[in-house]
Amino acid sequence: MTTSSIALQEAEAILRKLTPSEKAQLISRAVSETPNSFPGIEKTPGVCGGDAVIIRTRIPVWLLVNWQKLGLTDAQLLEEYPTLIQQDLNNAWAYFAAFQEEIENNILENEQA
Q1: How far apart are CA 74 and CA 103, in angstroms?
Q2: Strand ranges inside 1-113, DSSP E
């Protein structure tokens, strides 16, 4: 077994013990150390104002989060956006957990527009 696979197993064991808030903090730190590398999410200057979007789409994370806050379920979102799959929503929720302030600001900016 390699050193990296042992470290990964140890990290997975620790991850299971973390609270959701601690996991979000860990994700945020990991992403900050690997810019432009969040699973299933991309930010491209000039596309949707540079906001975080679901990869291979122009569907902003803030839009999905806002719909969820308004009461739409994952099933309803998948019906409304047939190009999405459940993993896309999971990625959006994880991104929101890691970058809540960014997404909240995006929602506010778009409500004011």
Answers
A1: 18
A2: 41-42, 53-54
Range of the domain at 105: 19-112
Sequence-distant (6+) residues with CB within 8 A of 90 are 40
What would the two tokens of residue 51 be?
Answer: 């906001």
The count of domains in the chain is 1
Taking a C-beta distance cutoff of 8 angstroms, is the pair 97, 55 a contact? no
Answer whether residue 8 is part of any domain: no
Exposed e or buried b for every residue in 51-69, given b needs 16+ CB within 10 A?
bbbbeeeebbbbbbbbebe
In a 10 Å sphere around its CB, with 0-12 CB exposed, 13-18 middle and 19+ buried, how is residue 43 labelled?
Answer: middle
Q: Which tens digit of pLDDT belongs to each residue from 64-103?
A: 999 999 999 999 999 999 999 999 999 999 999 989 999 9
What residue type is assigned to position 67 of the chain?
A: W
Q: What share of the chain is helix, strand, coil (3-state, %, to 5)?
A: 65, 5, 30
